[in-house]
Design goal:
This protein is mostly helical. It has one domain: Up-down Bundle (Methane Monooxygenase Hydroxylase, Chain G, domain 1). It has helices at 6-32, 61-87, 93-116. Helix 2 runs antiparallel to helix 3 (93-116).
Length: 123
């Protein structure tokens, strides 16, 4: 199996072995499992609540607002880690410090705006 296509043959063989193992496990599971369907087992189950009524439900906007705020803070945290490593590099100290304070200023303005609009209250 030397040459250019030898490594592709090895990868294909390992892929075939992996697929065979997974297919064998699924087939063995199908053979060994008990199958006793009842009407209760065949009903739709959602978080312990019986499925009654329509499938449409209205959700409040505040959940989405908190999700967006989480994303903003997650992006802030993702930006802080590379900044901390670059801040230590020689020649980038003051530049990265100013950039970080500008970035934190934008984040602060967003939080103050959300606070003033009473978005952060949970009532």
């Amino acid at each position: 199996m030397d040459g250019y296509f030898g490594s592709y043959v090895l990868v294909a063989a390992l892929l075939a072995i992996g697929v065979a193992i997974v297919a064998g496990a699924l087939f063995a599971n199908r053979l060994l499992r008990p199958s006793r369907p009842t009407p209760d087992k065949l009903t739709t189950y959602e978080c312990g609540v019986d499925p009654v009524g329509e499938g449409w439900a209205q959700s409040q906007v505040r959940y989405y607002v908190f999700t967006y705020l989480y994303v903003v803070f997650a992006v802030d945290a993702v930006f802080l880690f590379p900044w901390a490593t670059v801040f230590d590099a020689p020649g980038y100290g003051l530049t990265t410090l100013v950039e970080m304070f500008v970035f934190l200023g934008f984040i602060t303005l967003g939080i103050v705006y959300a606070w003033r609009k009473r978005v952060l209250t949970w009532t």
